[in-house]
User: Fold these one by one.
Assistant:
Number 1:
Amino acid sequence: MSENISASARVGKQIRGKFLTTNIVVLFTLFGVSLPAISDPDVVVKEAWVEEGAPDAMALAGYMEIHNQGKKSLILTGASSPDFGEVMLHATIVANGRARMESIERLEIKPRDRALFKPRGSHVMLIDPKRQLKKGDRITLFLNFKDRKAHKLVLPVKSTY
Ligand SMILES: [Cu+2]
């Protein structure tokens, strides 16, 4: 009996939630404002972009700053993109004058700290693009964090030359 009551209460909550979301969407549409993504306020990403590669490039590099504005550590566990077959987080290791890439499986970002993905350093390795990407295009990227929902980003493709 009590299970039934809580089940119907849950349904009621879901319907109200959906109704509210729909109204917000209508409101934003009316005012011509794009709907902001409802995202984790602890995660702030700046300077995010993808480096344009050669027309036949098998992989592109993405760069960004990930700031932790929260009070708990962020644990970055990976990334994914509908625009690429595979996405990896890579560190660039220089040893004996040679640079090589190493996979980052887990990256802790302490409160008030940031992680830098920048040219010649760590980067988001975007492998197997599903279409040819050139300057001015945009790609979607999801950052995955432990115990948090994925953080959605839209990155512009930029040329460095
Ligand atoms: Cu790489």
Number 2:
Amino acid sequence: MTSTTDQGAGPQCDWLRGRTESALDCGGLLVPWGTAAPPPDRGATDPATQSGTAQTALPPLTPDEVATVLSVAARAPSLHNTQPWRFRVQDGRIDLLADPDRMLRAVDPDGRELVISCGAALFGLRLGLRRVGRLPAVELLPDPAQPWLVARVWAAGHAAPTRVEADLIAAVPHRHTHRGPFSPGAVPGRLLAAMATDAAAEGCELVLVDDVTVVGRLDRLVQAAAAAQRADQQIAAELARWVRAPHSQARDGVPATARLAADAGGTRLAGRDFGLPGTEDAGGEPPSATAVLRTAGDAPVDWLRAGQALDRVLLRAAARWVFASLQSQPLESPRHRSAVRALLGGRGYPHMLLQFGRANTAVATPRRPHAEILARTQADW
Ligand SMILES: Cc1cc2nc3c(=O)[nH]c(=O)nc-3n(C[C@H](O)[C@H](O)[C@H](O)COP(=O)(O)O)c2cc1C
């Protein structure tokens, strides 16, 4: 498999070769089963979409509605804020494409984190459709002949957002990766339980790590993985391309305002060393909860689910002004990832370490304009 954009330039990428799967995903809480009509370009005879429901013709999204949907999706988190996605709007559906030019081949050679980032944007697409009063239907990895096409989303019905969905939508502008100080106050157990339920609804597991000894061991793995990455010239050079100088006007990458001036220490997992200090203050209150997001399998379809769960959990927290610092460095080396896996009982595949706490501040990181993330020409696909 070779993506169109790869042809003739750079390494041939075969990260999804032979591993694509197609599954109709009706999205748990946000989309009740049985409402999905087939994607607009397919007939009712497609076995993947026969749900026995009436397939009514729905008016296509207006350009304003598309813009609203994309603005929710584009606020998703992504590794180093690479925003490795493209959206193709055609025939009444939105195709989500991974952007191979934004894949971090040194630190993420399998494209796992690329797909997780796209999964987070996919949850944003679903939520964006709810914002405009549509019920989203989703097909994951719908076409093995188009391996960079990670999902196809279309409107399968109308309904006003529920109260929970409205809360998540309202949290989109202030959700952020929190590397600065937390405020006093524990994260309520009810909220942690709701986040675990959200992860389960997306086919994932949010494992809460209560044992401080285990948190300490996770921290040692973070530090060991970080040291190995610092010593790797390719990884260091790749990271440097995404770390922005103070006052940079770049619309992607990690800005100085989102990076720590110095590491926080204490009961916080060591933050990712971006190689260039930022302006964010360390210290403050310790995080109130530590968790690991994991999936039962480790195929691209699982990575997509992990991304959707990640965005959903982070938005659920942000709706209550609870935010997470994220750590994925030990999961980027097979050796350290196996150790994290073993620490959690040997089941499943970890994708993200999260630490939650309360905060009153929300510094938004930049995003690329819609003109850049819309795939318009054949060459963009
Ligand atoms: C797959 C993935 C891995 C990430 N790993 C880390 C990490 O190790 N350390 C960190 O500080 N942030 C990490 N992040 C957060 C991103 O840096 C962040 O989402 C991005 O810079 C955009 O900022 P925002 O989340 O505040 O919108 C990760 C995000 C994703 C989706």
